[in-house]
Amino acid sequence: MKATYEMGGDDQVRFQRGSHLVAVILAVALFPLIFVGAGVTSKDAGMAYPDWPTSDGHLLNPPGWLQGEKTLWEHGHRLLGWTVGLLAIVSAVYCFRRGGTLRTLAIATLLAIVIQGVLGGLRVRAVSTSLALIHGVWGQVCFCLACVVGLLTSRAWLEAGPRVEARGAVFFQRGTLVAIVCVFLQLVSGATQRHFDVGEALIIHLLGAVVVILILSWMAMWTLEQYPHVPLLVKLGRWLAVLVGLQMILGGLAFLVTVMGGHWFAMLRWAAPSAHVAVGALLLACVLLMTLGSRRLLRPVVNKASELAQAVAATT
Question: Residue 72: which residues within 8 A CB-CB, separation 6 or more?
Answer without folding.
Answer: 65, 66
